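subagent[fold] <- orchestrator: predict structure for attached chain, return tokens only, no commentary.
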Amino acid sequence: MNFTLKPIALAVNLTILGSSAMALPALANNAQGTIKDIEVITISNQRHNSLVDNQSYAQGKTTEADLANWLASVPGANINSNGPITGIAQYRGLFGDRVATSLDGHPIIGAGPNAMDTPLSYSTPLIVDSMTVYRGIAPVSAGMSTIGGAIDISMRKAEVMNSENVQVSGDLQAGYRSNNSASTLSGVTNIAAGDVAILLYGNTQTGDSMESGDGTVIELTDFDKTQAGFDVRHATENNTVGLSYHYTKTTDSGTPALPMDIEYIESSRFNVDGDFQLGQWQGEWSVGYLDADHGMTNFLMRAHDPMKKRRNTALADTTDFKFVLNREFSFGELSFGVDGYLATHDSVITNPTNAMFEVVNFNNVQDDRFGFFTEWQNQYGQTTVQLGVRVKHALSNADEVSGNMAMNMADMNMDSGMGGMDSGMGDMDSGMGDMNSGMDDMNSAMMPSMGSLLSDLEGDFNNADRKVSDTNVDVALSTQTQLSETLSLYVGVGMKSRAPSYQERYLWTPMESTGGLADGHTYIGDIDLESETAYQADLGLTWQSSDFMIAPHVFYQNIDNYIQGTPLDMDDASAKMMASMMAQDDNPLKFSNVDAKLYGADVNWYYNLTDNFQLSGIASYVRGERRDIDDNLYRIAPLNGQVSVSYHNENVITNLTLVAVSAQDDVSATNTEQATSGYGLVNIDIEYFVTADFTLRGGVDNLLDREYQNHLGGYNRVKEVGTPVMDRLPSEGLSAWVEATYSF
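subagent[fold] -> orchestrator:
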């Protein structure tokens, strides 16, 4: 049982049958506590056909390797995809660690400094019970940093049957996708006896590179991923205690929008949690530990310069905790909670053909965050009010770094037309030696060597005060009023904050270790960055009758000290020269505080044409702008929507979906972002409940084999392939898929 304070109002379930998912409504009380859910979007993983009402359930395709793809059917949400298993959640224009993403309430902090192991990559569809996306102003209890919203993944848990006899149940699932020959095989078994149960599961996913609509192979989009684990539960009437373990191993997986691919990701996650009742107080607690080891290269999967092989080895350890007490009083329901995490990060870049080349990118970086929050909720007539306040403290530090590019300097200088070539020519022609020597001296005076630039940046960083702390306050107020039997009004306001990430603070030499921004630029950090502060407002209406529902929302937020890359100035001359010489980047950027605003609207709706046919849809629009200069924010999803015609009876659910995406011309000049054209897609799928235990699903995505480019898909960084370097990556062409589930 979970007794944390939940936000008010409407839960919306989605029917996810392939990419044709549409939002469908279902008024529901919170089954975990006494408080109704706020306006949330809940994607449920329904695994069998014992359905009272097929419309109120949702499906996630096992043939999709990335759980982030489920977000495509949530109004306001989208996915920044840097590869087939590296989807970064975006909500209303904000993405990355601005969106609090948790698994069973545990924050997931990946090892990759470029977000190859995103939070949603630490799970897989069959072991997910549901995905919840908070719509509007996310409650402060939903996470440490909810400035960009919050997503919580509820994992399947061992189910206690309270039977003296041993009870065994589970699911087997297999899937195949034609475009990239992707296959999935999953199994889950629940064994229960008395007040104890254990859940065992395993999953393997593999795929080749995809093809676009015109037959271009999208290299590299191969992937190979295995996950396994268990959950043990002991449950009595007033107390539950559980122990979970989850193992993830990823090998040889492409990330074409990034300068490196995944060599391996290996992680182990342990969680201990429970709930209890103490007098009139209800409580829950949890402790988690994640150990992640991540290797990435630019030479094992893609064409490369043999003189510039790079391997990045990254490590991360995270311990998280949460304790919440909840009680109902005469003046409403009140909860108190403390939570937080302690994370360390290390990242070292080497050249496997040159033992002397080593750059310590991040060294024992400390990123610790602690919070205390309280939430209150009460009902006054037809209005429900919820108010939450969170006080949070972020503590950051980093050890000294070092860099050595010995034996690689001549190659770099030769590529740059610098003194190394001049020196070699001088040795060859003794008659010109004095002149060349003078030219070398002049070049040295005008353009420092790579070694001296690296030494300057290293010294500046190591001599700086690297220990930083931030104390911030979040406030969220949400109200929902039932104006009539069919019409309700949601109003939410909030003040949310986010302390800078470790990449934004401690990236000391120009690199692309930017948390997955994937704009092609090198960045440096700024230890003295201020925390972001957003002032948010959301207004929503829900009209719902027996056959028709529509729920539009409009939103606006001002963000002070928004962290954005800006061009380097004269104070960062060493970094600018280093970026030009090392990466041929003439426009390197520095994480800086600027002012920004985001505004827009999103809507979901449905109309029951008959008892068996339904018309439904979603639409999302967001605009992100700088307030300090005339520019747009980077990687903002364009106007997009879906319309679906669905048919269902006792044994079959079918969907025909039209997806429309507008051109995106409002791009960031600072990030030299490229505009994209609009496109439309047709998807079709069917689900057939063969028996009470056996279900078949299948469909075709991009039925017309449309060639298109997703604005959030990034630019190609792989040489010698069908798509030129730094051109927009194409998206998957026609792909048929099929999956089967057997429950026992």
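orchestrator: received. Logging for downstream: Residues 1-36, 48-58, 408-445 have pLDDT under 50 and may be disordered. The longest helix spans residues 433-446.
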